[in-house]
Amino acid sequence: MKCINLSSEEKLKEAAKSVFLKKGFAGTTARDIADAAGMNIALTNYYFRSKEKLFVEIFRDLFSLYCTNTVKILEKPIGLKEKIIEVIEEDYRMMKEEPNLVLFIMTEIHRDCENLLPELSKYSEMLKGMFVEQIAEEVRLGRMRDIEVEHLMPIIIGSLQFVFVGKNMYMKVHGMSEEQFDDYARTHKDHVINMVVNYLFQDVDTMREIRVKEETVL
Amino acid sequence: MKCINLSSEEKLKEAAKSVFLKKGFAGTTARDIADAAGMNIALTNYYFRSKEKLFVEIFRDLFSLYCTNTVKILEKPIGLKEKIIEVIEEDYRMMKEEPNLVLFIMTEIHRDCENLLPELSKYSEMLKGMFVEQIAEEVRLGRMRDIEVEHLMPIIIGSLQFVFVGKNMYMKVHGMSEEQFDDYARTHKDHVINMVVNYLFQDVDTMREIRVKEETVL
DNA sequence: TAAGATTTTAAACGTTTGTTTAAAATTTGC
DNA sequence: GCAAATTTTAAACAAACGTTTAAAATCTTA
Fold first, then answer.
1. pLDDT per position as a tens digit, B23-69
2. Cα(A66)–Cα(B59) distance, rounded to whole angstroms?
3. What is the C-alpha end-to-end distance of chain A, expressed in Å?
4. How far apart are CA B37 and CA B10, in angstroms?
5. CB neighbour list of residue B113: distance below 8 Å, 6 or more residues apart
6. How many domains does chain A have?
7. Which of A35, A57, A193, B22 is the most core-located residue (most Cβ within 10 A)?
8. How many contacts does A have with B, using Cβ atoms within 8 A?
9. CA distance A99 to A104
10. pLDDT above 90 as % of chain B
11. Going by C-beta distance under 8 Å and a sequence separation of 6 or more, which residues neighbour residue A18?
C-alpha cells in the first residue's frame, strides 16, 4: 500500500507557494522551486506531475486564504456596521501576514481567468446568502445608504487592498522600511474603516440627527 | 547620416506595448511581440537591442501615462475638493482607456523595483509642491479632515483603481460583459467620489452645519 | 536481512527562450 | 542609375525551459 512521505511533498509545496507568491506563475521556473526547497529538480514532477498542476493546487489554497475568513465574517449573525469593520480588520490581518497575496491573486486571474474560474465560486458565495438580505433589510429601514452589493464589497475591501497591491511602490516612493510600512498600513486601515463606515452609515445618522434637531426647534 | 524609419520602429513598439500590458514582462516572449507586430523576430533586437531595453522604454511611457495627467491636475490653481474630484474623474478616464494599466504598473514594480526605481520620481513629484501646501492650509483652516498626504493619495485613487486591478475577477464573478463592466465602473466611480469627498470634507461641513443650527437656536 | 516498494538523484530529453549572424531586399545620396 | 547605407529576412546560436529517464539510495515489510 502507498505510504507517501508528506514531509517532502509538503516541503516542496511550501517552497513553491513562497516562490509563486513572490514571482508569479510566469516568472517562476521549476529550478527556482527546487532551489527554494533545497530538493532535486525532478521532484516537482514526481509529486505533482507538472509545474502547472502544482500551481493550480497552490492557487486553490491561496484563493481560499484570500476569501474564507471574510466569508465567515459575512455569515456571522451580527450587525452590519460591526460586520464591515470586522471584515476590514480581517483583511488587514490577512495582508499583513501575506502581503503579496492580493497582487498574486489579481495577476494570476488576469493571466488565466478561464482555468482558474472554478476557484472563484467561493468569492461568489461571499455575495449571496444572508449578507445580501441583511443589506436589503438595513437599506429598507433607512439605516444604511442604498448601495448594490457589487459596489459594496469593493468599497469595503478595495481601498485597503490597493495599498498592499502597491506596497513595493509606496515603500520606494516614501522610502519606507518593512516596519514603517506596517505602521503606515495600520493607520491607513483606520482611515478606511472611518471613511467606509462614515459613507455607509454616518451620513444617514447625521442627517437623522439634523432632522431631529430641526424638529426639536420647530 | 542615420535616418531611421520610425514607422517600423514605432509599429514594433506599439505592438510590444499592447502585449506587455496584457501579459507582463515575464509572460511575454520575443516571438509574441514579433507576431503581434507582424514583423521578423530579429527586429526587436535590431531596433531596441534587447527585450528588456524595449520593456524599460515602454514602462517609462506607461508610467508616465499613469501619472502625468494626475500630477497636472494636482498642480492646478483650483480648490481642493474640486481638485480631488477631477483626479478621480481623470483616473477613471485613464483606466477606461487602458484597463490593464494599473495591474501592469503594480506587477512590474513588484517584480523589479530596483531597476524601475528611477521612473518613480514622477510619482514623488505628485506628493510635493503646492499640493502638500494646499492640504496643510485647508487642514489649518479646519475645512478638511487632518490627513497626511501619504494616506490621502491612496484614499483618493485606491478604491477606484482596485476595481480595475480586479477587473477580470469582477467580470467573471458577476458574469459581466465589457459594456456592463464599463457601466459598473462608472457607477463605482461616483460612489468613490461621494465617499471620499464625504470623508474629507462633508463631515466637517455637516458638523459645522450642526454647529450653525445650534447657534441659531440658542 | 533479504526482497520489494518508494524516494531521490544525476543526467539527459526535446522545446522554447532571447539573441546573433550573414545574406537578401530595400532605400538613400550623389 | 549605381554604390553605399539601411532595413528585413531566414536560419542558427547557446542557454534555459519543463519534463523524463533509469539507476542509486532509502525505506517498508516479511
1. 999 999 999 999 999 999 999 999 999 999 999 999 999 999 999 99
2. 29
3. 85
4. 10
5. A168, A169, A172
6. 2
7. A193
8. 158
9. 9
10. 76
11. A36
Q: How far is the CA of B45 from the C1' of D1 (A)?
A: 33
Q: Which residues of B touch A206 (CB under 8 A)?
A: 203, 206, 210
Confidence of residue B3 (pLDDT cuts 50, 70, 90): very low
Are residues B39 and B71 both part of a single domain? Answer: no
The kind and range of the H/E element at B158 are helix B149-165
**B44 & B122 share domain:** no
- Binned at pLDDT 50, 70 and 90, residue A100 comes out as very high
- In A, which residues are within 8 Å of B59 by CB distance? none
Residue A205 has pLDDT above 60, yes or no: no
CA angle B187, A151, A121 (to 5 degrees): 130
Residues B137 and B158 in one domain: yes
Does one domain contain both A70 and A160? Answer: yes
B150 touches A174 (CB < 8 A): yes
Q: Which of residues 13-42 of A touch strand C (CB under 7 A)?
A: 39-42
What sign for the dihedral angle of Cα A41, A43, A48, A49?
positive
Q: Does B115 touch chain A (CB under 8 A)?
A: no
Place of cell 515603500: A171
Q: Give every CB contact of residue B13 below 8 A, 6+ residues apart in sequence.
A: B48, B54, B57, B58
Q: Are residues B4 and B66 in the same domain?
A: no
Identify the DSSP state of B198. I
What average pLDDT does the structure give for chain B?
89
Its domain, for residue B15, covers 1-49
Count of other CB atoms within 10 angstroms of residue B144: 22
Name residue, grid cell 524601475.
B116
B27–A169 C-beta distance less than 8 A: no
